[in-house]
Amino acid sequence: MSKKRRQFTAEFKLEVVLEGLRNEKSVAQLCREREITDKLYYKWREQFLEQAPTIFGGTVKQARESAEQAGQIADLERMVGRLTLENEILKKPRAC
Prior knowledge:
The chain has helices at residues 10-21, 27-34, 38-51, 60-91. It has 96 residues and is mainly alpha-helical. The protein has two domains: 8-58; 59-91. The mean pLDDT is 87.
């Protein structure tokens, strides 16, 4: 006889994740009390944290794109600095 999988509501998941984020109890203790596995808690927490940017008007896709763009900007700024330095070195007259 197979064991039926439990279905958890979004409200239950949110309640568990918020309780875990408050750090009032250890994750192990919280999971024992709620009769869920640690792995399931961490999965829910990760989903919650990934979706958090959408609460304030953005989407997860926009948040990822923004992070990628910030990385590209930093790379380009480093490149500009390096090229500026090379340009200054090449402009200096050489003493023979």
